[in-house]
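Hey team,

Filing this mostly as a record. A colleague (T.K.) asked me to run one chain through the structure pipeline before their review meeting, and I want the input and output archived in the tracker in case anyone asks later how it was produced. No errors, nothing strange. Just documentation.

Input sequence:
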Amino acid sequence: MANASSGSRLRWIVLALILVVVGGGVAAIWTLGDMGDDSRWMATYLAGMALAGLLALWLLLLSGLRWYFRLAAVGLLFTGICGGLFGLRSEIRFDGDMRMVGRWRWEKDPEDILAAHRQEQGTFAPSAKYELTRIEPTDWPEYRGPQRDGVIRGQQISRDWKAHPPKLLWRQPCGLGWASFAVVGDFAVTIEQRKQNEVVVAYDIPTGKEIWKYEHPERFDEAPGGIGPRATPTIAHGDVFSLGAAGHLACLDGQTGKPKWTKNILEGGLNLRWAMAGSPLVVGDLVIVNPGNQRETKTWEAVLALDRKTGDVVWKSGWTKGGYSSPMLATIAGVEQIVLLDGKQVAGFEIKTGKELWRYDWDKTQQDINVAQPLVFADGRIFITSGYSVGCAMLLPTKEGDQWKVEEKFRLDNKPLRCKFSNPVEHNEYIYGLDDGILACIRASDGKLQWKEGRYGHGQILRWEDLLIVSTERGDLVLVAADPKELKELGRIKAIKGERCWNVPAVANGRILVRNEQEMACFDLRPATP
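Output structure:
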């Protein structure tokens, strides 16, 4: 009897130890250390699988139950797990923190919802041509605005969202993908995934109706990253320049959507794991793209400049792996140049020849995931940041004669600003960004953290004067004061539904366009008129 009693106590002690160790481990994961939430979720999933395995072993070997009860219990355990996973559609996805956000099988497929909406809405026939050749200061013709810095200029926006919240103009389904909008006047264009085609779509902003579309047969799908194209189209010289996930670059007539030329910028090369994401940059008669050299051998150039009118290659440059940010135009040390953060470095390139002027190695990121756009200051300083526990740095490229050098003002590993998908903005020598999903403010002079508060997820940030517009990962728009002393949230609205709102908003002529992989909406931000 004593041995039986001792054995009974032992089996329950083992069960308690399993629960305490696994439960305590999960608690420690979420309360101790400076791990990113993505690492915490992955560790939690592993702990859950370990718990399921240990419980199964305990039931089979130590529970003391009759064998048919043991087998039935283990069967129920794994039937529940498998049933839950089976209830999800096959395309299990993850948000920016690697939290599972799959869709149940009985829920409507967003692609079917979009198809029904498109059939019902039809195509819009404008009464006059859109003026796309003249870009006004209040337009938003490319990724993150005219200067690719996320700053809204020349527009009036309501400062009091409680008394005068943004007015919804329309909301409707859209295709999959992570591109933003380019806007000129009442004309907006983005790129979406519709079934098996990447589709560049032009919309009439006042009505939200489709003007034209250009389709290319391609469907990129990568489980954590999702389905569809990533790069925002660019409007320049009356044309639309779009880049698909697998490298299909197209110059389209802005009025009709008909192609003037197309080119596969990855022909003969390799795609990035999460696809082409850098938006085409149009500088004069050049279109700059970054296919990257994924093989990292000197048999393939990483940066291409193509003739805007013909698509012919003008120059090639660089040998490094591609990244997920976009080339941008900047003036540094008095020299106008192309600045690009790729998978391995941030560098400056001469516009006419593509010659690399300077470079700074930034190759510590997990799987070379550099996404955030470099932040270029008026004095030539460049701020770069990456997520996945990497951190940030402030650089100053300078030129003496024909020689360039890069001074490192500060480099802070795994702190205090680690932007994963989002892009930081600057105001009055302070930098605001989403540090692994939490809004943070750091001092530009030394990177010192001023405050970190407010969980907005892996959304995006724009700046207008001394205000920030934060689009959260869950689809809210939040008005925040750009105040280095504290977080001041001034207003919030629900803009679109969804759990992965990673697309950058576009603000033009007082209206904001937001979208994600299933819905888009337009709001009027202008102050109320008397």
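Quick notes for T.K.: The radius of gyration is 25 Å. The chain has four helices and 35 strands.
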